């Protein structure tokens, strides 16, 4: 695994605040919709099997993809990976909106969209973690990581409660729109207001194969 290359500057605090703000907005929107889908399916179908499927489709793809996506974050431009994953999540949500507005929404449409969204999150999360060492000074990194972890924990705590409350007075399509808006906001901030240089490995010819990097990654984590 490539060791993080710190490329901080004098304005690292502004960069860090903007970056974490954009990703918190994106995380909240995505989490809000994911839990709203789970709540919706559970209340509509009154079935433990459907609830299990919503959890499997909505969360397991992230778990299985993350180790592989960690290698992508080492090999490719992390900023582009984050933007791409956010865009994929937003597009899948937009398609859901169109399906439901046209009366074609179904359980399987929700489950498949959940899986696509989870795959996007599986790519985005390692890339976000890999960006922080680039923009934060080494002596501040532990503090910033701790702060970021607290924000993520609060977001994951608030989003299921917020989604459940929203379902009482808002349609599922409106909740979907929240995710599209937060994803667009995060993409705009990252694309136009943040300058995050490509790390060294992303600009060089790869000496190791993808599988070699994956193996080194598992060895680095002691797996």
Keywords:
223 residues, Growth Hormone, Chain: A, mainly alpha
What features would you describe in this structure?
- The chain is mainly α.
- It has a single domain (25-131, 138-195), classed as MFS general substrate transporter like domains (Growth Hormone, Chain: A, Up-down Bundle), CATH 1.20.1250.20.
- 79% of the residues lie in helices and 0% in strands.
- The protein contains 7 helices and no strands.
- The chain has helices at residues 12-45, 48-75, 78-101, 107-135, 138-166, 172-192, 210-220.
- It is elongated, with a radius of gyration of 18 Å.
- The mean pLDDT is 85.
Choose one word for the global shape. elongated
CATH domain class: Mainly Alpha
The domain count comes to 1
Largest sheet: none
CA-based gyration radius: 18 Å
Structure annotation, total helices: 7
Quantity of strands, as a count: 0
End-to-end distance, in Å? Answer: 13 Å
Task: Tell me the CATH superfamily.
Answer: MFS general substrate transporter like domains
Task: Please bin the fraction of helical residues.
Answer: over 70%
Percent of sequence in beta strands: under 5%
Order of helices and strands: HHHHHHH
CATH topology: Growth Hormone, Chain: A
What is the typical, i.e. mean, pLDDT? 85
Q: At CATH's second level, what is the architecture?
A: Up-down Bundle
Structural class: mainly alpha
């Amino acid at each position: 695994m490539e060791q993080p290359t710190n490329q901080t500057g004098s304005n690292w605090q502004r960069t860090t605040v903007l970056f974490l703000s954009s990703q918190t907005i994106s995380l909240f929107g995505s989490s809000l919709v994911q839990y709203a889908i789970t709540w919706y399916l559970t209340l509509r179908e009154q079935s433990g099997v459907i609830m299990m499927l919503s959890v499997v489709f909505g969360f397991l793809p992230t778990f299985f993809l993350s180790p592989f996506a960690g290698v992508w974050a080492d090999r490719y431009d992390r900023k582009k990976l984050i933007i791409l994953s956010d865009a994929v999540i937003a597009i899948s949500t937009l398609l859901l909106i169109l399906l439901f507005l046209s009366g074609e929404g179904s359980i399987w449409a929700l489950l498949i969209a959940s899986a696509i969204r989870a795959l996007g999150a599986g790519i985005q999360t390692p890339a976000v973690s890999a960006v922080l060492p680039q923009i934060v000074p080494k002596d501040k990194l532990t503090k910033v990581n701790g702060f970021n972890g607290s924000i993520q924990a609060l977001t994951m705590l608030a989003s299921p409660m917020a989604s459940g409350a929203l379902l009482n007075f808002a349609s599922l399509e409106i909740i979907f729109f929240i995710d599209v808006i937060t994803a667009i906001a995060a993409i705009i901030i990252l694309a136009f207001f943040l300058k995050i240089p490509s790390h060294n490995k992303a600009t060089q010819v790869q000496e190791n194969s993808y599988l070699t990097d994956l193996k080194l990654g598992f060895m680095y984590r002691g797996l």
